[in-house]
Predict the structure.
Amino acid sequence: MSLWVDKYRPNSLTKLDYHKTQALHLKHLVQQGDFPHLLVYGPSGAGKKTRIFCLLRELYGPGVERLRLEHMNIQTPSNKKIDITTVSSNYHLEVNPSDVGFHDRVVIQELIKTVAQTHQLDPSGQREFKVVVICEADCLTKDAQHALRRTMEKYVATCRIILVAHTISRVIPAIRSRCLGVRVGAPTKDEIISILQSICRKEGLSLPNELAERIAMQSNGNLRRAVLFLETCKVQQYPFQPDQKVAAHDWEIFLKDTAKMIVQEQSPQKLLQIRNRLYELMIHGIPSEFIFKGLLQELVKNCDMQLKTQVVEKAAFFEHRIHLGSKPIIHLEAFVASFMASYKKFMEATVADLF
Amino acid sequence: MVAPQHQQLLSVPQMSSTLAERDIRSYFLPNVGSEKEGKSKEAKRVERHRKRRVVVIDSDSDEDFQLSPVKKRNGNPDLSASCARDVKQKTDKDTSTLKPVEAADVFGNSHIKRTVLKKPAETHKVMEKDVKLQLENQHSDTDFEATLRLIDEQKYVHTREKEKTPVKEKQKPQLHTSEFSTVAVHSHTVPRNVTKETLSKTAQKLPSERKENKGIAKPISQPTVSPDLTIKNKEGAYQSIRNEHNHEEKDESSPPATKRSDDVFEKKRQHAMQYQRYLQREGPKNPGGKVVPQGEPGCLAGLVFVVTGVLETIEREEATSIIKQCGGRVTSSVSRNTSYIVVGYEPGPSKIEKATKLNIKQLTEDGLFDLIRTKSGSPDSLEILPNSSKKNIQNDEEFKQNGKSCLNAIMHETKVKTSKDIKNDFKKDESAVHENKSTLSPSPPAGGNIPESHSLWADKYKPLSTKQIIGQQGDRSNVKKLMKWLQEWHSNHSGKKKLVRPSPWAKDDTGAFFKAALLSGPPGVGAAGRKPTENHVLVMDEVDGMAGNEDRGGIQELIQLIKSSRVPVICTCNDRRHPKIRSLTNYCFDLQFSRPNAKQILGAMMSICFKEGIKVPPEALNDIITGANHDIRQVLHHLSLWSVKDKQLSIESIKEETQKAKKDIKLGPWDVLKKVFSADAHKTMSIRDKSDLFFHDYSLGPLFVQENYLGVMPHKARDNRNRLLELVARTAESISSGDIVEKTIRSKNSWNLLPLQAMFSSVLPGDFMEGHLTCQINFPAWLGKNSHRNKFQRILQELHGHMRLCVSGSKEAVNMDYLTHLRDSVVGPLIKEGLDGVPATLHVMQSYYLLRDDIDSLMELSSWPNQKDPMSHVNSKVKAALTHRFNKEGVMTPYSIVNIKKFASKSNQDLEFDGDGQDVQDDEEKEEEDDITRDAMIKAKKRRAAPQNPASGGSRAKKQRVDNKGDRRKNATGKRK
């Protein structure tokens, strides 16, 4: 019994619920017989992987669904042995090189090259090329991306590369220009609602529209999250109530609480507590962008317009610094500290105005 | 003077040492080779004509020979004349431009040219005088040279008349010239060098030389100055200096000296009685009883003194130094050159006898003082010679003298000695050493004869006997132990005695069992200095330095050597706990030296300072010692370095210097942090000092700052919370900038940015938050948190790997979206339905290919502070049931799924193959599994997983068989392991 989110995942391009024109384009592309490297990008939970999988199925037929996990051992030039897990079928290989951290270049060079170098033995089979899906392409190091650039050109006869990324801003232009960009945008609220409703229909449940809307709101355009929320709601309480509470994720709650603490009191001691909470978030692998976003969204609620711009500017400043630096906590803390300083001033000024 | 006796005693090593100490310039000058040849020839001749003044030439200070003697001999008048013209022109030019001497003049070829000149023209002489008059303060090289040439010429003529060894005669002027120019140069440039050293060594003189010297010296030394005093005096001064050079050269003309010293040595032997008396001789009767006159420097210039016997109020060394300060020279034995003999109580009879024979004036101590007082009034006779240079020479002499005397002091208790007794002194020392260590041969006093002013103080004051080792005087000290061990070594290891390995805790261990000793201690305590030099001891220094490929197995080899050794082996090392040394310690008599305490060092250092003539207040010295972290060698180095600059070290300067020295000590990060934020410490710190704090540990320092800056109460923001927060914010921003710099440094290897990081990560935060720490300093939490984070990432990756086949999301998505839901759907049924919920849970686990362990991972990953672990709501019975059923029914783990799937597909294809093929597969599988999991659980699960495999289809039975087979094999291998 899989979760609904996996259970009701569409597996063909025609069955996709939104961005249907794009799906049609992709279908035509495949039917043409050949296609360039693809760079599929879009926010999390928009259905990038789903779409790619549909495409592969369209390309190779149901044989693609027979997946297996494989472990590869690769030796780096410095004689370090690295393990990497790949998901593959007979026709494609899916790999996430950033699993091995900064050794991802070796993965690109060795693994993908070996795959790409092998020709299809039986050209009477469906296609002359294999597909390599590279996940989290935007997390690849610059070295790896440059290594990929060459691989892409050299083995274009035997393999197609599909890159999956959240954002193309971290993909080097050289690669961007070698790929056909496919943007998979997040579904709209209505699309999410209709999908939720259809899932409920398939499950034989009745979903109040209000609840569906709230779930869609809270999921923030993330369909995966929306479906998971739906299921949680179902587990919590069925039949659904229109005013049913949609339980947020623990980390979201934690983040919100942290933001509240910042607004409550501004002092070095408080900052120390905040730091520990931020550490907690970091430990749980919440990306610093999310933390920044979450904090900012909460913090600006308490600010007037002038302060808002200040705070947003600060947030942008320090968020950028996170990417330049090596220890996100330092920049997060610096943001919180600067917010505290300006907020304290702001509050005192407001209080002074009152009297 | 004391020195010559040393030389007598050990003239040969001394000679070699002087040879070794050839002025470095000699290597840059042409004709070095021919010089050498010439020298050896000359040396022989010198042997023959020892009594002649010319002997000078054979000196080892051949460094300044510029032309081969042959050339000189054939020196054709025309050439020399032209040369003279050359020089004259040059001099004129020099004088007109008033050009100060340049290094090139000394080192260059022009130097040589000048020396070729043998017979300067008469006009030259006149001109010379003019020049001198004009340029009294112009210490031009040519000036000196010209003067010298003048002198030389006179001498030349004089000697020529005598018709003795023309070769040498001819060479002599040249030699002098060069010598002189060197002196001149030194006065301008290098404060101390070989020439001066040799100068200070003016010790041994041959009677003939003395005579001449005296004769020349006389005109100046007379206080009644003639009207045309200036020039004469000047010349005289030169003469005297030249003489000094002669002496020193003579001094170095070792063959005669050696011979002579041998004679003296023999003689001395016969005077054992006197020696005995000398030994019992007391110090001055009335030390400090008279006012010692402060003679003007140079007032005794040109006078040669001999001091004999015990003076009334001052020590002999003092007397010597007083005379030297006044520009006089002190020699050890009486010769015709001697101007005065200062006679004290119990004078050396031979000296008195000789003095009366030579009709030398005898002075008492009072007489000496009177002489100084009267002469002080006389005009300075050394106008030409630059005062600075003279002083330098004096200083140097003094330095030298001090060095000698303190060396003696080191060799023995400080005693008033006449020169002839020094040798006896050595003897006594030897005997003392013999007494001390019967098995040890005396430490050769060679160190005493190497020109000390050259050597490092650490070497110079290296303890020569066990007595002088600082902090090791106690009966149970390590040194004593070592001595005892050495003494008994041969008896212990003669094979007769049966030795028992002592318990490592035995306190009064003599180490009899061991054939080797391991001396260990921090650098500078003297672990290395302690080894008594001895013929039959093998000393392995710095065994912990054995490293690298060249020394591979070195320790093992050493141990083998120790095992088979027939002589005691002494190894020294700094770090005894070093893993490399550990194996060695089992075979060694372990003697650990610790740093002596400050008081012990202080005493020794004070005495050395006294000997070197440095005045250091004890408090300052204490500072130095603590500053150097009780490292004696370091203290000595510091002292010798600073004393070069200034003999009188004031407390302030010492404080300053120790501050500098202290910087070299590595502070721990805690101390660094305290200093970074402490307002008190900042008062005395420059920005450079602050940034240096960062460099104590630039990887950990910033983390400490980041961790603890919130615990600082900045003094700038007292009672002002707004200001406080502002400061905190600025600090945080600065730290964040520091992090960016660090990233750049690490990722791009741009280590030159470190100072920038120092500013951002340490100096600026310290500046903003300058104040005091309000809470205790914490170790950076970042390190722990970071590793915690990495652990979570690892678990997450594993989990994601397991779920990967059925989940489209990335690791991040799994973490942020799936985790809670998955956890709820796994744990929910167990909480709600108890035992009945187990199948539902198992179903979820199965569909996501989760292991039992993954549940724990799930719990860990999804747990937040102040949240209760959902598993704690689950009844333990239910948990047990879950585990039981999980194990019984099994869930296909991702890995077994991988294996089974692969296996299934393969076995489907392989069904027709015989057992061999399957065996191969089994092996493959086993290997894979060994790689992937070391978890015993997988085996158990796998056995059950196989039948459930939906993909298995018809080949089910077959597969199971193979599976079991694989398992059996695995068990077997497990057992083997």
